[in-house]
Specification:
Largest interface: A-B, 63 and 63 residues
Helix content of chain A: 40-55%
Number of strands of chain A: 2
Structural class of chain A: alpha+beta
Number of helices of chain A: 6
Largest sheet of chain A: 2 strands, antiparallel
CATH topology of the largest domain in chain A: 434 Repressor (Amino-terminal Domain)
Number of domains of chain A: 2
Catalytic activity (chains A, B, C, D, E, F, G, H, I, J): cyanate + hydrogencarbonate + 3 H(+) = NH4(+) + 2 CO2
CATH architecture of the largest domain in chain A: Orthogonal Bundle
Keywords (chains A, B, C, D, E, F, G, H, I, J): Lyase
Shape of chain A: globular
Pfam families (chains A, B, C, D, E, F, G, H, I, J): Cyanate_lyase, CYNS_N
GO molecular function, one term (chains A, B, C, D, E, F, G, H, I, J): cyanate hydratase activity
Oligomer: homodecamer
Domain Cyanate lyase C-terminal (chains A, B, C, D, E, F, G, H, I, J): 75-147
Order of helices and strands of chain A: HHHHHHEE
Strand order of the largest sheet of chain A: 1-2
Chain lengths: 147, 147, 147, 147, 147, 147, 147, 147, 147, 147
Amino acid sequence: MDKIEMHHTLMAARARQKMNWDDLGEAVGRSPVWVASVCYGMNSAPPDIAQGLANALGLEDEALIEALKAYPTKTWDGAVPQDPLIYRLYEVVGVYGPTLKDVIQEKFGDGIMSAIDFSMDVEREEDPRGDRVKITMNGKFLPYKSW
Amino acid sequence: MDKIEMHHTLMAARARQKMNWDDLGEAVGRSPVWVASVCYGMNSAPPDIAQGLANALGLEDEALIEALKAYPTKTWDGAVPQDPLIYRLYEVVGVYGPTLKDVIQEKFGDGIMSAIDFSMDVEREEDPRGDRVKITMNGKFLPYKSW
Amino acid sequence: MDKIEMHHTLMAARARQKMNWDDLGEAVGRSPVWVASVCYGMNSAPPDIAQGLANALGLEDEALIEALKAYPTKTWDGAVPQDPLIYRLYEVVGVYGPTLKDVIQEKFGDGIMSAIDFSMDVEREEDPRGDRVKITMNGKFLPYKSW
Amino acid sequence: MDKIEMHHTLMAARARQKMNWDDLGEAVGRSPVWVASVCYGMNSAPPDIAQGLANALGLEDEALIEALKAYPTKTWDGAVPQDPLIYRLYEVVGVYGPTLKDVIQEKFGDGIMSAIDFSMDVEREEDPRGDRVKITMNGKFLPYKSW
Amino acid sequence: MDKIEMHHTLMAARARQKMNWDDLGEAVGRSPVWVASVCYGMNSAPPDIAQGLANALGLEDEALIEALKAYPTKTWDGAVPQDPLIYRLYEVVGVYGPTLKDVIQEKFGDGIMSAIDFSMDVEREEDPRGDRVKITMNGKFLPYKSW
Amino acid sequence: MDKIEMHHTLMAARARQKMNWDDLGEAVGRSPVWVASVCYGMNSAPPDIAQGLANALGLEDEALIEALKAYPTKTWDGAVPQDPLIYRLYEVVGVYGPTLKDVIQEKFGDGIMSAIDFSMDVEREEDPRGDRVKITMNGKFLPYKSW
Amino acid sequence: MDKIEMHHTLMAARARQKMNWDDLGEAVGRSPVWVASVCYGMNSAPPDIAQGLANALGLEDEALIEALKAYPTKTWDGAVPQDPLIYRLYEVVGVYGPTLKDVIQEKFGDGIMSAIDFSMDVEREEDPRGDRVKITMNGKFLPYKSW
Amino acid sequence: MDKIEMHHTLMAARARQKMNWDDLGEAVGRSPVWVASVCYGMNSAPPDIAQGLANALGLEDEALIEALKAYPTKTWDGAVPQDPLIYRLYEVVGVYGPTLKDVIQEKFGDGIMSAIDFSMDVEREEDPRGDRVKITMNGKFLPYKSW
Amino acid sequence: MDKIEMHHTLMAARARQKMNWDDLGEAVGRSPVWVASVCYGMNSAPPDIAQGLANALGLEDEALIEALKAYPTKTWDGAVPQDPLIYRLYEVVGVYGPTLKDVIQEKFGDGIMSAIDFSMDVEREEDPRGDRVKITMNGKFLPYKSW
Amino acid sequence: MDKIEMHHTLMAARARQKMNWDDLGEAVGRSPVWVASVCYGMNSAPPDIAQGLANALGLEDEALIEALKAYPTKTWDGAVPQDPLIYRLYEVVGVYGPTLKDVIQEKFGDGIMSAIDFSMDVEREEDPRGDRVKITMNGKFLPYKSW
């Protein structure tokens, strides 16, 4: 079972079980964003979590558990994303990229924020003028070194 | 004076005055990230802020203030960024884009996070295993409507 | 049922029922352009409209109704469209983009026209020298804010 | 004088004279959007209008008038625009392109909306929940013919 | 039946019937180039022509006739064509594009040659040094207008 | 003097002398389209024609004559042209490319129309419904051979 | 049978019959490079050669012979080839393109080497330091002409 | 002096001295194609050859000799060349690439023809039907090895 | 059996046999990196190694052995890789490419490191602050020659 | 002084002083590859190293030292490099990317080799059949984590 079939199997089970990402995150003791990224085939699950996700969704298929544990090859469609929700994030990187580079490197020195030793969270912030999406990214700072 | 010349003038003054983004943000009562984006020519400053930035940096040039107030045309180089710090943000959008879309739309319904009614913050999180960069994005949720 | 199969099912039923977009719009009390965008899989329908569309077309398939309600991932082929009708719209954006930016921002200040809080209409304007297509776009103005 | 120098000369004069696009349109009896497109070098002005624009802006330069009358070569940067205001229009073409094609061709038969025999208007629509931008495009329908 | 299946059906029938494009053009009273473009799925046929083409090729399939009448979405592979015959035409547009623009606009004023109100013909010109291909394009001139 | 400077020199002289392409073609006994392509730097002129063009335009500059005779490196901007007049020609190649390939190869066998042993003409065809542009391309047929 | 299926059929037969390109070239009295290009679907075979190839490979399938005779649409994957053997040829064109243009046009005048009236040969040149590949290209010179 | 200035200096001197590539090749005892590639900045000359080229062209500039000896960074414009002479070579690589791969690897085993340990020659072949360009490429075969 | 099917067959057998790349390398007396590249279809195996790999994995399929011996056409997805592990290698080439060119050519003269007469090794280097990946590339230096 | 001017200043001084990368590395106690990357503007130097490099090259310019210390924006030309030495490295990433991913992840688990906490070395390996280039890359392994 490859990551694409795994994804469809999990999404169908999630709909059947009426579990949202918060439920699924809680069931395995992990963040809902990370759990979603696993179910989208973009992260591998450690064995106990793979088992836990299968249990929570009522799926006892060994091939599915193997697929959850497999190390993914991460790819995406095209250089510029098209779906408006994803494009807005790309636009933020384009518009604010040099700003973020300068602010981060002023605070930390020459280096980068890791996208591997990294976590991310999404919250709903209530606001009478319209609720707001709050995305928090948290990555280890990695300094460039001389050698 | 166009945004590029404005940017170089501001960066040189900032170096001369030894003001970092926090200082400059404080001087005009705005977030350091937003102030940096203005100085990178990616946002326009309201008149009082434009004046305040010029004052803080000891620059009393009318053309500079006009440049700060001008509405920018926002562009960036290429579809795929190359600087490693900015690329990692692009990679996050590629790897986690569909995950974020699903998590946000599950929480809010069909719609997007605005990149216009939007703010962003960068913090340093101390950690004995290596300090961490924390980026917070906050954008209004905009629902798709039928008509 | 994914959005592509949904689209083919709806188009076939529409042909069988000899209903045009005006008829279908009227049947569910929505604009024909928006209804068409739903049937092309580019917008999601609220539950009652999804049901209404299925009824109007004589399709009582639950999977179809789910597909109508599903939040779409919006994508299109290529960066430059090729079909002449669609290319002409792209050309209008290329030729008049900076003009529209200037005229809108002069009228409203620094910001954009939303493509999410947005509606669109198409009319036929009779003209003895050849009838004319009139497209009206209507989007909320979103101002950039400082923070 | 090429179209780029012409553009900068006109924009500087417009700022000096504090004339907005409505003023300039009124001065020559044309739509502000079309006048702006001429000043952005994307359309040529007939001789009397070229003279009228120069007069209205207090510019009596023969080379400028020649530049206004010159037939432009229309080009733009990149296949996918980046400025958020212009990108949203591009996104509308991507998301609604096939919808518009179907709705227009159902109303008119096989053919296109001309982008040459074409006009466009921008209005501000007041709305207590936030004012709205209204863009109207009006192009002659051109049917495909057999031969 | 989509345009691709329609194309293969027609080409197979054409081979069986040993009809060339001249024969088929004559059978329906249209130019062989236009008839070929219909059979390649790049133009729609009016009902009587669609019927005529089906008759001429001995195909009495209603779905085929519907496919011939359907309004096509015109697309092609890639930005730069590769087949040498088609590339040479692309090269002509690249090499002579600005020349043609200048010559046409000198003769007609600012505007374009329509590719919609358009016809095209191919002839064989005998020449002792090697026969020559003569392609004639004929499109309505569309002037840009002020508004 | 390179081809770009040569082009600007020739265009300015042409304007001063009020000579159109027909006049210039007649002056040197060549087609106006070919003469224009030479002045746009896309073809080289034989020595006598180079001299004739310089004479006709009242330019007796040796460097200019050398530039006219120089063999050009033919390039153009981008894979997809943007100016509407040139784009329409590109669109014709895209839409009708496979049609032309089939019609030509049916008439001539496997091979191509040369773009080198090639000529082109532009005529104005009067028409009460709007005058028409007629472009004629004439290229030697080159058959593929076995070896 | 399309060119792809034809290719696989021929390659399988060639392996079964243990015939290399030299054998196959000899069998039909043609160059092994040209025969290989036919079997790769990049050239059409005259009827007698098509028959000869089928005979030599013990394939008496009429559809195969038709596929060998069919005029190919020549396309390839991507603008920059990736296989190292083919990339080296592309690199030669990139590195030596302007050099070849200058050397050829100095010898022949303004014009090109035809890729249609063209043949090619591959030889093995023994060399104690490592054998060498010798590729010979031979194309008719086509001069640009004035008209 | 960089390679671009070096190139222009050499080309001007070559024109002044009326030396063609054959003359220049003879003057330094090297192939005219290789000498041209050096003068186009695509290969470095050993010290004695650099001195010899300067002598032959009557240029005694130390900076020029250094530029001739400098190791070049080899780049070219775009992925797909546009000048027709160079494009035809690119087309040959596209059309015959897989054919050449198969013929070479059948003769030599798995490996490539080097583009570094490589030479190339251009000859004029007289032919009553039109003279022909003969290009010979000669590169060391490099086998892939296991390790 | 093509290289893709071969790859899947080998990977499944490897999982069944619980053999890692070191085991498989040892089994055939070759480097694990090279063996992996063969199993990924990017290198051909000599007959005895192909047999050895099949034996080691308990696969006695003649078609598989033929597939292992076949000379591959090496291609990859896209110009810029997306998987983070592979992208980091691409980034190293982008960031350090000109540095490596200068350091290598200073040491060796004008030329390149072969990617054909080439081997590569991966080692795990223990480090208390986090283990390190050590990749060693070893390629023959190929000097450019004059001719 | 920007990184480009800094680079040219350093290269000129290096030539004047006849210091190679080994000399310069030794002068500041760092690897020659890292020192070269600093001089190419792709890494920033800590203050003492910046001073040391300036001293070693006899350059006492404060602006130069600031430029050496500045945090670079790392970019490179194009997605696919063209210089043959750099292209071969790109080819290695394309051909062996998935192989390296598998071998590394088998040894270390799901994660990547850092290109930031990274060093690189180049050595000359003598070999009677032709000396060899040995490149060693050494990067910290970064495991993906769940959160």
